[in-house]
Design goal:
Layout lengths: L9 H20 L1 H12 L3 H12 L4 H8 L1 H8 L2 E6 L2 E6 L4 E5 L3 E7 L2 E6 L3 E6 L6 H12 L1
Antiparallel strand pairs: 1-2, 2-3, 4-5, 5-6
Length: about 150
């Protein structure tokens, strides 16, 4: 099974990554701003207040970190690529010879997000394929099934 050629701008790639990260780990992100509010309210020590501000702002840095940490994968899909499923591998092929190979055994799930199929690799790595890269939504669903079988 093979998709048509597609591109994903780096900023979109990082936005999708940040959103998936927040969706998957929201329960770990919520306590930090709450702790910051408690520390700022109850403490008079300037060092504790500075620490509380840093702890409270930390979840807001997720989009920037997603942008910085996805540079290799985002660079690959910034130029025209297509994806195929061949045996136990999901292969991203680029016209300039670059590519990415993902073992299907490492894929922990596939979800739909803003017109893209988000391939979840392990816990915090993601790859994206636009649904529009397939001939029809039925083809995208077949691709999704091929990844999860």
């Amino acid at each position: 099974m093979r998709s048509n050629s597609f591109t994903i701008p780096r900023i979109i790639f990082s936005r999708l990554t940040a959103e998936l990260y927040v969706r998957r780990f929201w329960f770990l992100l919520v306590p930090w701003p709450c702790l910051a509010v408690i520390l700022i309210t109850l403490s008079r020590d300037p060092n504790v207040i500075i620490f509380a501000f840093l702890v409270g702002v930390w979840p807001l840095t997720i989009p920037l970190r997603a942008y910085l940490f996805t540079s290799k994968a985002a660079e690959l899909v910034a130029s025209p690529v297509w994806v195929s499923v061949e045996g136990e591998w999901v292969l991203f092929h680029s016209e300039d010879g670059k590519g990415m190979k993902i073992a299907r055994s490492r894929i922990s799930g596939v979800t739909e997000l803003h017109g893209h199929l988000a391939i979840v690799i392990g816990y915090v790595k993601f790859a994206f394929v636009p649904i529009s890269a397939f001939g029809s939504p039925a083809d995208a669903e077949k691709f999704k099934q091929a990844l999860t079988d």
